[in-house]
Specification:
It is built from 15 helices and 3 strands. By secondary structure, it is mainly alpha-helical. It starts with a helix and ends with a helix. Helix 7 runs antiparallel to helix 10. Strands 1-2-3 form a 3-stranded antiparallel beta sheet, covered by helices on one side. The protein is flat, with a radius of gyration of 23 Å. Helices cover 61% and strands 3% of the residues. The chain folds into 2 domains: 103 residues, Glutaredoxin, CATH 3.40.30; 191 residues, nmb1532 protein domain like (Four Helix Bundle (Hemerythrin (Met), subunit A)). This is Hemerythrin-like domain-containing protein. It comes from Arachis hypogaea (Peanut). Pfam families: Hemerythrin. InterPro entries: Hemerythrin-like (IPR012312).
């Protein structure tokens, strides 16, 4: 009789982990300076591209590196030679290309079945010089920010729909915690996304749109109007989430509130997707016609970093989660162009922590 009192939990489709996801791999250890740009690239490649657990501790640079050893590594600079990647007893020291090739050779199976279908191998993530020279820096940054926010919005929409379906029942996976713990995690994730979206809008209004309006007054008017349209919805969703946090899950209107949350997020997603597509297809391609000098492009990029300080510091890991690995590597290329080296190192340090 007691057995009949125990309810059989139904496993949600979203919570079923693929068989490949349970595979264990040996930790990747990096040796070198925590401030090294190269270490940031390699760590991102090992963790994001191939989902390999990486040792968070950075060993000091090897002091026994000889000139002869350096000469055996093609295209290797003095700074790059201080970075070593090691998996168990195997390791390699050298340039970025050499280190990324080692990752691909050491974990060949992961490149063909990455956690994201579009994830390339580590070597494929390296940005070509030709691409860097043919696309506006600020345009490339803006498009990748659109891509990250699109991914995070889709994630929040699916999560909200799952919460609405369960209506107060906790997730099967114990790592998610209780229902209220999950709701708090949901709230935190949305607040992080909201910060990124707000800073992105500020960047466009303070950096991007003035560039277009200086060439053709009113060119960005429609985009500004869409920013004003979406802001009340974004803030409204935050208030609904606050209600979900304080309401009793057994109250009559609890499920209705969850469905309202899901519906509002879906509305926001649709409007943002339309807004991003409009900018990507209609507005951003006009940047080439503005004919900014290389120096003006660099100044605009620096201004973006100044405006979006939280996105490029405490929220950088969160932001990069929304990018395919090859785009995340490209975004690091943009950060590495920051002429204030201390600022650049502070941004990259977030990845290495």
């Amino acid at each position: 009789m007691m057995g009949n009192c125990l309810r059989r939990s139904e496993k949600l489709t979203a919570e079923i982990v693929p068989h490949e996801g349970s595979t264990l791999y040996h930790a990747v250890r990096l040796r070198g300076s925590p401030e090294s740009i190269l270490n940031a690239y390699v760590r991102l490649a090992s963790v994001s591209t191939n989902s390999i657990p990486s040792d968070r501790r950075f060993l000091p640079p090897a002091s026994t590196t000889s000139t002869a050893a350096r000469s055996r590594v093609p295209d290797c600079t003095d700074n790059e030679i201080t970075t070593t990647i090691q998996v168990r007893s195997e390791g390699v020291t050298g340039s970025r290309d050499a280190l990324l090739r080692f990752i691909d050779s050491r974990f060949p199976g992961l490149s063909s079945t990455p956690p994201q279908a579009y994830a390339p191998t580590a070597m494929a993530a390296v940005v070509s010089k030709g691409e860097l020279e043919t696309t506006s820096l600020i345009v490339r940054m803006t498009k990748m920010q659109h891509k990250s926010m699109t991914w995070h919005l889709e994630r929040m929409v699916r999560w909200a729909e799952d919460l609405a379906r369960r209506g107060g029942r906790r997730a099967v996976d114990p790592k998610v915690g209780s229902w209220r713990m999950e709701v708090r995690k949901f709230s935190k994730s949305y607040c992080l996304l909201l910060e990124v979206m707000m800073e992105h809008a500020q960047m466009e209004e303070r950096v991007l749109f003035p560039i277009f309006d200086s060439a053709d007054r009113g060119l960005s008017k429609h985009a500004k109007e869409e920013h004003a349209r979406d802001l009340p919805i974004m803030n409204g969703i935050r208030e609904i989430i606050k209600s979900v946090e304080v309401l009793d899950s057994g109250s009559p209107n609890y499920r209705e509130t969850l469905h309202t949350l899901s519906s509002r997020l879906r509305t926001l997603q649709g409007q943002c997707n339309q807004h991003f597509r409009s900018e990507d297809v209609e507005l951003l391609p006009m940047m080439e016609a503005v004919e900014l000098s290389d120096e003006q492009h660099r100044i605009a990029l620096e201004h973006c970093f100044d405006v979006m300080q939280r996105t490029h510091r405490p929220l950088l890991k969160f932001f990069l989660e929304g990018l395919p690995p090859h785009d995340a590597m490209k975004y690091l290329d943009l950060i590495s162009m920051c002429r204030d080296k201390e600022k650049m190192e502070r941004m990259l340090q977030v990845i290495l922590e």
